[in-house]
Amino acid sequence: MTDTEHSPALATPLRRPFNLSRRGFLGGALGALVLGVTLPGGPLRAQGAAAAVTPGTRVRAFLDIRPDGTVLFRSPFIEGGQGIFTAMAQIVGEELDSDPARFQVEGAPPGPDYGLIGGMRFTGGSMSVRMSYETMRKLGASARAMLLQAAAARLTVPVATLTTEPGRVVHAASGRTLTYGDLASAAAALPVPRDPPLKAPADFRWIGKPVPRIDVRDKATGRARYTIDLTVDGMLHAAVQHAPRLGMEPGLMANEAEVRRMPGVHSVHTLPGAVAVVASSWWRARRAVESLSVSWMEAKPGTARTMPADFSSDGHRARLMAASGDGVAYESDGDVAAGLRGAARVVEATYDAPHLAHGQLEPPSALARWNANGTLELWCPNQAPEMFQTAAASVAGIAPDKVILHSPMLGGFFGRHFLYETANPFPQAIRLSKAVGRPIKVIWSREEEFLRDALRPMGVARFRAGLDAHGLPVALNAVAVGEGATGRWYGRQPNAVDSSAVEGIAGKPYAIPNRRVGQIHIDDPAIIGFWRSVGHSMNDFFYETFFDEMADAGGQDPYELRRRLLANSPRHRILLEAVADLAGGWRRGPYTHADGSRRARGVAMASPFGSEVATMAELSLRDRTVQVHHLWVAVDPGSVVNPAIVAAQIRSAAALGLSATLVEGVVYSAGAPQARNFDAYPVLPPDRMARVHVRIVESGAKMGGIGEPGLPGVPPAVVNALASLTGQRVRSLPLSRAGFV
Amino acid sequence: MDLTINGVTQRVEVEPDTPLLWVLRDTLGMTGTKYGCGAAQCGACTVLVDGQAIRSCVTPVENVANAAIHTIEAVEADPVGRKVVAAWVEQQVPQCGYCQSGQVLTATALLKQTPNPTDGDIAAAMVNLCRCGTYEAIATAVRKAAGA
Ligand code: FES
Ligand code: FES
């Protein structure tokens, strides 16, 4: 981690001029989320509403301290690589006074105790730590207070004479100590204190430190277990073949009898939109199901969410491009029409970005078992246990409390494992297990995953800027065209803008006096979902590359123009200067590097998920291959729990951003995705990775997110650098479809 | 068919063209070896066959019936594998971890054949995909393990 810098001391008076993105998400999306989620089969009940439990307060729902002093912690948030289990162990361990290394963490079962995001629970929106930080500290402090009480009773001394050291209570006057393991059962019987005192941050032993992750050894030795690895007694394996287009249903299976006789085959099934084979191993099931010749019947007219037979990426892009008008206003300031009329010069450009696949390395799977007592036990990758429990109950036709849901570690997610109609295998596992009368594990092959993933939406943005006689922007009109993932899944109000469709175009900090951001909603025919950094994943690319176009048209240096327009926004300006400093100073180029290559740099800012980010890229071209040598990222998440995990997440998000910039894009033609595996849908390979340098700036502002914010600045920083080097403006991603490799 | 895995010979009853990956995972319950793509694209399924890193998802089990197969479950039984795992822990390489069995075994095969690899050797050998983008940490860990 030598390339990570961490400067916690920086403190500046802060204001957030017009960053609406986070407020938009919390106010809009969460409001809708609590009201209910619509799925086929009827609206789901809001979770936690009926429970008289204050989430995050019942110590016993979260913590078991074992006789040996190790701590089992049931995490409200699911681990999928972002380091949340370690962060939870640090936060709770800090106040409990127990070494995070002694924690074993697992995903908590469904229940009202874990609804720490506005009474709901999901792992996403880069929210886990920032939404639960205070509550989890209090939880640890409450548990410590209970242990102290139990020790006071045991030693018959006043509680005030006791202190703790990691894992034990100390009576200094007598030199006696009791371990947490000894006290745990007595402590568990005590009432949970209301407002336990919290440590002063200056006394933190683990919070704010690069504490080692608690899961790396298991993950380096193959011992970590994901859903796809699980087995239960009597289990059979299932593989599926989905309808080539969503909405089609299986008809005749001409060779069914023959397939039934293939080795290891137990049975052949039809499911909604799919056929399945159950067999003694997944390979046998897969081979059999792929041998089935199925007559697929077109969707009945009026079926929701069918994939049109003529759907193509090119056609949809053309449709988005053709949308006219300024759309529904989301953000405005000043008078943009007057600003444009009075401008000395007007600059216009239209940008687009493709659908993207998640490509998490663990293919989706689900394991279902019906128990003799009428309960259904389900193991499946998920970012929202209560929502999956309710949806599983609806598929199974039983009450939600009869569904025992397990939420294993995720082999990557990036937004893949929300509840997306048609994109989750658990309904298939439930139905097959019921039909067969045995536990069933369904695995989707990589090819089936590429067919049914919930994609990052396709998006288009049109910009029109007015410059004054000095070349400075005085008016900016931006229109985002497409559909946002939040609106798709959590309800869209007609004539209101889904913030996930505009975040990253709206919420920008630059002082441009006349601004308007509007959105034109056009349904995306694909199944769309959340993809790491959601709307920011493309919108910051659109905005920040257009920013450079404004700068060029006005004869301004893009870095200096940003600095100038951030003059009254110290948090952003400091961060911009920090990234330049990290990069050894701003130089746009092109210039000749010591190795003889011609290089150039680009810069971009982003305000995603409550954090602030400044990104610089340096690249060269070899033939038409774009070589990104360095990415410098300065991130201000307000304050951090684990700087090593923060740096790792920034690198990880930067890699995904680079992948999307260089090579990724889902292409549909005739209603079918053209890529069904990584051969035709390339993702960033090791030799295309850049060196990522991270500087963490802790401004002391309200804590922001970390899992996603490293991504949005990368595409614009890279594409701006490419424009500096070549003079060519690329307005459509990925670069591999713009004449580059 | 007899297979020798991590030094133990076991009999399996499977179709001879079954990929080794699924024999390991479903027949033998050794799930440390991962399925990512099934098409020799990602390397999550990497195991060692006679010391070479191979992609078990496209390797018919009949081709390895007389070979010495090593999987992630026994990586620390090998002194080079132990060094690699130690470097992985020290560098805190894994994120989601799903690709890491394959990465660790690929690094182990490299260092067994080339104890002091150049950066070019590392780049040529460490080609497995990691969707979490741990590539820099992987390269650093391989260098550390080589120096250990
Ligand atoms: S699973 Fe074998 S290479 Fe991907
Ligand atoms: S650590 Fe997640 S795929 Fe490599």
Q: What do these coordinates show?
A:
- Chain A folds into three domains: 38-220, Aldehyde oxidase/xanthine dehydrogenase, molybdopterin binding domain (Aldehyde Oxidoreductase, domain 4), CATH 3.30.365.10; 233-300 and 363-452, Aldehyde oxidase/xanthine dehydrogenase, molybdopterin binding domain (Aldehyde Oxidoreductase, domain 4, 2-Layer Sandwich); 315-355 and 456-738, 2-Layer Sandwich (Aldehyde Oxidoreductase, domain 4), CATH 3.30.365.
- Chain A is built from 20 helices and 30 strands.
- Chain A is α+β, with helices and mostly antiparallel strands.
- A seven-stranded mixed β-sheet of chain A has the order 12-13-10-20-17-18-19.
- Chain B is built from five helices and five strands, in the order ββαβββαααα.
- Chain B is globular, with a radius of gyration of 15 Å.
- Chain B is α+β, with helices and mostly antiparallel strands.
- In chain B, a hairpin with a 2-residue loop joins strand 1 (2-5) and strand 2.
- In chain B, 36% of the residues lie in helices and 13% in strands.
- Chain B has two domains: 2-73, Ubiquitin-like (UB roll); 75-147, [2Fe-2S]-binding domain (DNA polymerase, domain 1), CATH 1.10.150.
- At the A-B interface, helix 6, helix 8 and helix 19 of A face helix 1, helix 2, helix 3 and helix 5 of B.
- The structure holds FE2/S2 (inorganic) cluster (2 copies).
- One FE2/S2 (inorganic) cluster sits between chains B (94-100, 130-132, 134) and A (81, 361, 412).
